[in-house]
Amino acid sequence: MRPETNAVHAGQTPDAATGAVAPPIHLATTFEHGADGARISSYEYQREGNPTSDRLREALAALEGGEDALVFASGMAAITTLLESLPNGARVLIPDDCYTGLRILCAEYLPERGILVETIDMADLDSVRNACTTPVTLVWAETPSNPRLKICDIAQLAQIAHAAGALLACDNTFATPLLQQPLSLGADVVMHSTTKYFGGHSDVLGGALVFARRDALFSRVGHRLHITGASLAPFSAWLTLRGCRSLPARMALHCANARRVAEFLASRPEIQRVNYPGLPTHPGHAIAASQMRDFGGMLSIELHGGREAALAMAARVKLFINATSLGGCESLIEHRASVEGVNPVSPQNLLRISVGLEHIDDLIADLEQALAG
Ligand SMILES: *Cc1c(COP(=O)(O)O)cnc(C)c1O
Questions:
Q1: Is the CB of 95 under 6 A from ligand 1?
Q2: Which residues pair with 190 in a beta bridge?
Q3: What confidence tens digit (pLDDT) does each residue in 230-253 have?
Q4: pLDDT per position as a tens digit, 337-361
């Protein structure tokens, strides 16, 4: 089945008890036992698994082409549960441009667990090969990356990681399975912040891991999820499942609008650099074109005039909202360094933009008036 069809149908079969076409939400925390003390259905307690989350797991596994999926209370819960499932002494490589929460988790918490983390430019395959000459447990890819929209070659990274006996995990939040399917390119695990495009309406937090195989790693991470308890609430699972059905249509418009916004900004003298993999000038354009179906709804810009110019532009927009996060219907713009905490790594002149579903002419008019000042 094609992703557009899976988005509408996987995990969404009508309710067997009532015929309801929209999936029911099961809020029960506990499920009745039979006379022999055994479970009646496959369920016992909500944290361990429940019918609404299971529908979402089925949808995500189908969309990413994995054997199974796990859902979490947030994207960070998914990342943490996966990385903390690695053995003591594990060595992990993460990208130099990646989600801030991952960077902070690796700097502050994983070392306490005896997990070593090194930061590397994943677009530079020679330096990845070089780093893999020392034993490595897991390579983390994020493409396009946050917030600089760097592109790395998933198929090549999978080969390098596997040759070194390591797993490849890929944060696919920016692309979504509608644009890119890392498991089909050789990745072992795909991670999502479903808070973003899957939810799609800036109103539900969630995270997911999709596994290529229902193997020992899947069982270990699943057990850790049940015991450490970062489970997704059924209502959040239901909202996310609802988001799945319109994901293909929304992504098509996000991509079309973002391309126009990127082209417009690239033509403006106030802008030093536009980071959007759909522009032929982007250093990762050829790889993005080969591994993605389209280039996504996210971009970032670096302004002439430094931090002041960036803050001024973010303050002058009227339609775009100056806020963090991404993937909702509304367009957002943010000064990334300001939301990165005590040690920001993003350039001070960088604004990250999540292009929404408004009419493109209104979006461009807003950016035009913000640049005019
Ligand atoms: C938001 C985000 C995360 C973290 O997800 P939460 O749902 O906020 O915990 C991880 N990776 C990327 C690329 C993100 O955008």
A1: no
A2: 170, 210
A3: 999 999 999 999 999 999 999 999
A4: 998 888 889 999 999 999 999 999 9
Q: Is 259 a catalytic residue?
A: no
Nearest ligand 1 atom, CA 102:
10
Confidence (pTM): 0.98
Whole-number Å distance between alpha carbons of 94 and 197: 23
99 is catalytic: yes
Whether the CB of 171 sits within 6 Å of ligand 1: yes
Return the ∠ at Cα 185 (arms to 179 and 187), rounded to 5°.
105
Name all domains of the chain by residue range, CATH numbers in brackets.
Answer: 3-242 (3.40.640.10), 247-372 (3.90.1150.10)
Task: Tell me which residue of 247, 241, 244, 248 sits closest to 15, measured CA to CA.
Answer: 241
Residue nearest to atom 2 of ligand 1 (CA): 193
Q: How far is CA 366 from CA 21, 70, 222, 363, 369, in A?
A: 40, 40, 46, 5, 5
